[in-house]
Amino acid sequence: MAGGPLKDVEHLHTDTATVRPGGRTARVGEAVIDATLSELSEVGYAALRVDAVAQRAGVNKTTIYRRWGNKVGLVSTALIERRGQLTPPADTGSLRGDLVELLKEIRLGLKVPWVAVLLREAGPRTAASADLYELLDMFWPARFKVSRVIFERALERGELPAGTDPDFLLEMISGPLYFHWLMLGHPLDDAFLDRVADFILHGAQASPPSTDRR
Amino acid sequence: MAGGPLKDVEHLHTDTATVRPGGRTARVGEAVIDATLSELSEVGYAALRVDAVAQRAGVNKTTIYRRWGNKVGLVSTALIERRGQLTPPADTGSLRGDLVELLKEIRLGLKVPWVAVLLREAGPRTAASADLYELLDMFWPARFKVSRVIFERALERGELPAGTDPDFLLEMISGPLYFHWLMLGHPLDDAFLDRVADFILHGAQASPPSTDRR
C-alpha cells in the first residue's frame, strides 16, 4: 500500500464530514478508531495490519482504505481524534495553575496503553522509522496546537515575556515527565508535577525571548 | 539463573580488582564488556543471553557467572563502566558553560546504539520490566553522581541558590533532549542545546530551594 500524502487524507475527511453525525458513517468511524487503538495496544505500529483492524471493527478493509487512505492515514486520524484534539487545557486564571493542568493531562496521556506502545516504538528518526514518523509528524503539531493556548493566555495576561516560544516551552515541560516516567521508571506524583510547574514558570519568566537565541 | 543481589556483584568485583591491571583478567573483562554491548545493540536487553556474550567474547560462560554474578550484574557493569563512570564534565568556570558541556555529553550518549536500544526497552515500571529496572536502578545513580558535580561547583561559586536539588535539575536538563530526539525525532543541534542551557540556567537560578516543595 503506497503512503498517501496528508492532503489526500484530509480530502477524504472532508467528504465524510458531509454525512450527518450520529449516522452509520459516524458509528463505523468510531468502531474503526476503537479497533485501531486496540490493535495498536496489542501489536504496536510497525506490526499493525489494516486487515486486522477491519476484522476487529467488523467492516470491510476497502471501507478503511476508501475513508482513511492507508495505515498512516488511519492511525494518525485515531491518534489526533483521541489524543491530539483534546479540549484545550482548563483556564485556571494563572500560568502556574494552567501548567499544573497541562502536566496532569500529559500524565494521563502517558498512562494510555497505546500511547506507551507507540512511544516505545519511536526513537531517532531513521529510514526504518520513517513510516512511524510520517504519523508522528501529523500528531505532534495537533497536540502542540491545543496545548499552546495556555501560553497565549499567559502572554495576554503579561505573565510571560513577549517573544516567548510556546512550542519550546512545551518541550521543556513534556520532556521531564517522559524522562521521569519512561526512563527512570519513577511515579508521576502530584509533588513532582508541582516542582516541574514551578521550574517551568520561573524558567519561562526569566528567559530572554527565544528569538534572541535562534 | 537466580538474580544475585548487588552486594554479591560488588564483592566479586573487589576480588578481581586484586589482579594486576593490564593482565589476562583485565583483557577478559574488556572483551566480555565489548561483547555484552555488541549483543545489547543487536538484540536488546530482554533477549540478551549470557551464552551468546560468552561465545562472542571467546570465554566460557562460567567465567562470566563467576565474575559478574548474572545477566543484571554483567550488563549493569558494562553500562556503568562505559556510560556511568565517565570523566566528570569539564570545568568551564561557569554554570552556563558546564551545562552546555553536560548537554553535549547527553547528546553523545543518546547516539550510542546500545543506549538507544536500551532506552527503547524501558518504559513504565511494570512486572514485565522489573528485570530491566533492576539494571537501570544501578545505572542512573552512577550516571547522576558524575553529572551532579557541575551543580556542586555552581553552588560553591554562588551561582545557584542554597538548597538546589541537583538530581531534579538533571531530570529537567535530560528530559527535553530525550523528548526532542526520541519522541519528536528532531536533531539535537547546538542551537537547541544552547536554548536548553539558558532555560535551565534561568529556571535554576530563579527557582526557590527545592526543599520548599517536598
TrEMBL record, chains A, B:
Domain HTH tetR-type: 26-86
DNA-binding region listed in the record: 49-68
PROSITE patterns listed in its UniProt record: HTH_TETR_2
Keyword match Iron: no
InterPro entries: Homeodomain-like_sf, HTH-type_TetR-like_transc_reg, HTH_TetR, Tet_transcr_reg_TetR-rel_C_sf, TetR_C
GO MF entry, a single one: DNA-binding transcription factor activity
Domain of life of the native organism: Bacteria
Record keywords, A-Z: DNA-binding, Transcription, Transcription regulation
Protein name as it appears in the record: TetR family transcriptional regulator
Species of origin: Nonomuraea aridisoli
